[in-house]
Amino acid sequence: MNRREPSRYEERVRQAYQAHKESGEPTYILGIETSCDETSAAVVQDGRVVLSNVIASQADIHKRFGGVVPEVASRRHVENITLTIEEALTRAGRTLDDIHAIAVTYGPGLVGALLVGVAAAKAVSFARGIPLIGVHHIAGHIYANRLVEEMRFPLVALVVSGGHTELVLMKAHGEYEILGETRDDAAGEAYDKVARALKLPYPGGPHIDRLAREGEPRVPLPRAWLEPDSYDFSFSGLKSAVLNTLHNASQRGETIDPADLAASFQDSVTEVLVEKTIRAAREYGARQVLLAGGVAANRGLRERLQQRCEAEGVALVIPPLSLCTDNAAMIAAAGYIHYQKGQFAGLDLNGVPGLPLS
Amino acid sequence: MRVLAIDTSNLVLSVAVVEEGRVLAEVTTNQQKNHSVRLMDCVSRLLDETDTRPEQLSGIGVAKGPGSYTGVRIGVATAKSIAWALNLPVVGVSSLQAVAQNALGFPGLIVPLFDARRGQVYSGAYRTAGMEAVSVQLAERIILLSDWLPLLREQAAGEPILFLGEDVRLHRETIAAVLGDQARFAPASHNHPRAAHIGLLALGEIENAGSAHDLVPEYLQLAEAEAKWLAQNQEGSQKE
Ligand SMILES: [Zn+2]
């Protein structure tokens, strides 16, 4: 097909955006997030105020499989998607008529899961002639902080979850520079694997965190600092060291206190995460340190980061847990920056499982 | 009443706009599988070409499976979301029946099939019933082709059996070996689904359409992990 004049949809979107900008009225963005196992929809005002944030969790379904099964997750997303969106509007006391744009996670994540949210967002955008915004999932996690406190630049964000471990530098809204990321497992993944070795239930993170409080970090475990100037992470060596320690002990007929092992593992993970974050904050003169992602719920990590940020005299922002795990309010918040700049996606927006940030 | 119809359940992408007694536009391609990228642009273009604003639609029809899991989901998620956003009825039509409609008028058993790997097919058996729609003779299912062919022979009672679908060529020799001359094969132009059929079938069902929320794909089988889990847990409970 040859290039054509703008479609009616494109015209409608352009006019709607123009009219709203001129009106100077508040901006209501509908966020949609389906990158993993949570079907979520939210309404956020001006990128700052959460009017609703509905999360249809599938955690109970995936628990029995010992991890997220992509096909199962994708199936649940299709079943839940319009219900979840409707619920978000209802709880916000709004209708689609009030919505100025639809922001959707288009990567990274599980491709089959992403595609459901992207298809739904494009469909609603098209049906109602509302602008469509594609949002990077990690950008969403970072912008969860803006729902708590205004961002001050430059800032350093540590994003840790079952799927990611990233250290990101931001000098302005919508500008991301990845300082470091994991070279193997995500931090949350390492937690799950170690938890399995300790015969703790899935997801393992919260169980290790709890168990670690009952023990002392007296089992010697490595710290993966990597090259001296590197902000990258690596957790697979640590995970192997834990497994070896357990294996060797059982060979010798000794027992290791699981609480001590959990404390030692947690100590190693949090020390590396926190020290690299602090070093980055120092190097780039950060005015704020942000902690985001599901692992932000980890008390050991929060407390350590809190202590070090206080010692460094840099402000630390940690959103409440409901905004740390995957949710659509953070996607709407990140999408608001694109809305202000008029950066909209076309109807050919696709789910991109390995989408790079920036 | 104007209906938008969509089929992305296999390699074919088909979109149509239909009214009672008239197909206004239809686009069907059988080339690329990037339905996620192409579907909405195609819908947008077809509505523009038929001078249809989304609010002017009276309903949506969609192929709800079986087929490629991802393909089916893209179609269903799109259809139910458009329907929900415009408060329209949405009708899910069997992806197999959509193909069977190509053979309306054939005197015998009409058997659309999609390959489902490991010797299995998604299939059903239909017969011409008047000139509106085919009627179901054997309900759609996932089945080993080697089990399906004897069932079809029994059902056909000596009448010819017409096989339809893009994947028939993968199994043509097996089918011919079992059914001999009783097996017929459609020309290539009858093998791909056409959204126009889905649109017209949906038009007939619009009065009975449920809520957009309730529309879900018809996969005909559980996700592998779910099937394994069920098998293990049933074994476990039987042992106890
Ligand atoms: Zn996440």
Tell me what you see in this structure.
- The complex is a heterodimer of chains A (358) and B (240).
- Helices cover 45% and strands 18% of the residues of chain A.
- By secondary structure, chain A is of the alpha/beta class.
- Chain A has a five-stranded mixed beta sheet, with helices on both faces.
- In chain A, strand 6 (155-160) and strand 7 (165-172) form a beta hairpin.
- Chain A is globular and about 75 Å long.
- Chain B contains seven helices and ten strands.
- The radius of gyration of chain B is 19 Å and the shape is globular.
- In chain B, 38% of the residues lie in helices and 28% in strands.
- The N and C termini of chain B lie far apart (59 Å).
- In chain B, helix 1 crosses helix 2 (69-86) and helix 4 packs across helix 5 (168-179).
- In chain B, strand 7 and strand 8 (133-144) form a beta hairpin.
- Chain B folds into two domains: 2-95 and 193-228, Nucleotidyltransferase, domain 5; 96-190, 2-Layer Sandwich (Nucleotidyltransferase, domain 5), CATH 3.30.420.200.
- The longest helix of chain B is centred in the N-terminal third of the chain and has 18 residues, at 69-86.
- The model of chain B has no long low-confidence stretch (mean pLDDT 95).
- Chain B is an alpha/beta fold and 240 residues long.
- The A-B interface holds A 1, 4, 7-9, 64-65, 69, 71-72, 74-75, 77-79, 81-83, 85-86, 96, 111-112, 115-116, 118-124, 126-129, 346-348, 350-351 and B 34, 36-41, 43-45, 47-48, 53-54, 69-70, 73-74, 76-82, 84-86, 212-213, 216-217, 219, 223-226, 229.
- Bound molecules: zinc ion (ZN).
- Zinc ion is lined by residues 137, 141, 161, 163, 293, 326 of chain A.
- Chain B: Its EC number is 2.3.1.234.
